[in-house]
Specification:
Elements lengths: L2 E6 L5 H9 L16 E8 L2 E8 L8 H16 L2 E7 L6 H11 L5 E6 L7 H6 L8 E3 L8 H11 L15 E6 L6 H8 L6 E2 L12 E5 L2 E5 L3 H4 L8 H15 L2 E7 L6 H13 L2 E7 L6 H14 L7 E4 L11 H13 L4 H14 L12 E8 L4 E6 L5 H15 L7 E6 L2
Parallel strand pairs: 1-3, 1-4, 4-5, 5-6, 7-10, 7-11, 11-12, 12-13, 15-16
Antiparallel strand pairs: 2-3, 8-9, 9-10, 14-15
Helix pairs in contact: 2-3, 8-9
Bound molecules: guanosine-5'-diphosphate.
Guanosine-5'-diphosphate binds next to helix 6.
Length: 432
């Protein structure tokens, strides 16, 4: 996993930025040898790629004075990292301290990025420009507080990392990663056994890939897939107190390690809170989703009607996900999973060209403008797809958009561009 070291003076907004980079993910303090009090490692994920963020300590003057501490910190960051991110307060500009660290970083063989933080509006552009003087390339304007610019910054970070085959994702870059998740006893191990059954080839090694021993490579429908963290499925863990908590953490980790999740639900019994929690984890992690109702061999007409009601009532939030009714016991419809995984991943990978997106958007907004708020009519100026995996759109507007209108936009977006099986994120940035 590549490592990004973040360096910066105290108060430049380094911690706020690190929290931004980690997004909604909980900061998990890692047990890495050599990580001491002043270096904390966090796991981060962006566009399906995992990396480690090394938050190096603030630059407190030591025996050698501030300059010495700075140089030492920069040296340490360079040793440990695959790329270094220098955070500068754009409102203050480059101080002698930054000049000193830049001198060290310019000698580095590692890629270095400069984030100009606290750029909260356009007027700051000239301050950002002055940071070219550090000799570390183009300064990237961000506002860690407002979250602006961090997407572009993360894209640049990923580009800066050396590419290794193991970390490349997507088509032609190794098997796609699938999490098979669901509450205990829903039939995960049974389904995995069915999928890897003797009639199908179980692949142990694929040219050019290193297989994590806890994952399984499975050939389905002519394609090899990596089912992540299946070790716990194959070897049933004995239930003890606290197990559920760990099972939930493990589920979460598997989802995050995967690109697409199959959420298995027991079709023969009423939907439970636990099922909904797992679905929420997938949506929040921004992963593609296929819902599989298992134990279909036990489902009769009555249960089927009840289940339709549950779907209408409780699964509205994930109605974009495809559902399949399977039986791990009889093998019913199990062969349908691979095509559904593919559809979901295609949606997840989708990039809508900016021109196409905006011509669609301007027609839509002209026909149905956002509701007036506080006597003002918010204008939707422009949209761009900031990322795929999952498709993430940023809308620039002149005013706040109500939740109802945002939902309307998402619904229309899905109708126009078909994101079956993938969550879609829309964020709105208000320009004065
Ligand atoms: P896991 O905890 O999710 O891995 O669940 P298991 O695969 O261990 O399955 C739990 C129980 O459900 C076992 O007794 C299985 O035999 C049973 N089971 C799994 N899938 C099916 C199915 O499709 N139909 C029926 N009738 N039973 C199933």
């Amino acid at each position: 996993k590549p490592v990004l070291a973040v360096v910066g003076r105290p108060n430049v907004g380094k911690s706020t930025l690190v929290n931004r980079l980690l997004g909604r993910r909980e900061a998990v303090v890692q047990d890495v040898p050599g990580v001491t009090r002043d270096r904390i490692a966090y796991e981060a994920l962006w566009n399906g790629r995992e990396f480690t963020v090394l938050d190096t300590g603030g630059w407190e003057p030591d025996a050698k004075g501030l300059q010495g501490a700075v140089a030492a910190q920069a040296e340490r960051a360079m040793e440990a990292a695959d790329a270094v991110l220098l955070v500068v307060d754009a409102r203050v500009g480059a101080t002698a301290t930054e000049e000193a660290v830049a001198r060290v970083l310019r000698r580095s063989k590692r890629p270095v990025l400069v984030a100009a933080n606290k750029v909260d509006d356009q007027r700051m552009a000239s301050e950002v420009h002055s940071l070219w003087s550090l000799g570390l390339g183009e300064p990237m304007p961000i506002s860690a507080l407002h979250g602006t610019g961090s997407g572009d910054l993360l894209d640049a970070v990923l580009e800066a990392f050396p590419a290794t085959p193991r970390e490349q994702t997507g088509r032609g870059a190794g098997p796609r990663r699938v999490a098979l998740v669901g509450k205990p006893n829903v039939g995960k191990s049974s389904l995995l056994n069915r999928l890897t059954g003797e009639d199908r080839a179980v692949v142990d090694s694929v040219a050019g890939t290193t297989v994590d021993p806890v994952d399984s490579l499975v050939e389905l429908d002519g394609e090899v897939w990596r089912f992540v963290d299946t070790a716990g499925l194959r070897k049933r863990v004995k239930t003890a107190s606290g197990t559920e908590y760990y099972a939930s953490l493990r589920t979460k980790a598997a989802i995050e390690a995967a690109e697409v999740a199959i959420v298995l639900i027991d079709g023969s019994e009423p939907l439970t809170e636990q099922d909904l929690r797992v679905l929420t984890m997938v949506v929040e992690a921004g992963r593609a989703l296929v819902i599989a109702y298992n134990k279909w061999d036990l489902v009769d007409g009555d249960r089927r009607r009840q289940l339709e009601k549950e779907i209408d009532r409780d699964l509205v939030r994930v109605r974009w996900a495809e559902r399949v009714n399977v039986s791990a016991l009889t093998g019913r419809a199990v062969a349908k999973t691979a095509p559904l995984l593919r559809t979901a991943l295609d949606s997840w990978d989708t990039r809508i060209p900016t021109g196409q997106l905006n011509s669609w958007l301007s027609d839509l907004v002209a026909a149905q403008p956002p509701p007036v708020r506080g006597g003002k009519q918010p204008k939707v100026l422009f949209a761009t797809q900031a990322q795929s995996r999952p498709p993430t759109f940023v809308l620039f507007t002149t005013g706040f958009l109500e939740a109802g209108y945002r939902r309307f936009l998402e619904r229309k977006l899905r109708e126009a561009f078909d994101f079956t099986g993938s969550p879609v994120r829309i964020s709105v940035r208000v320009r004065e």
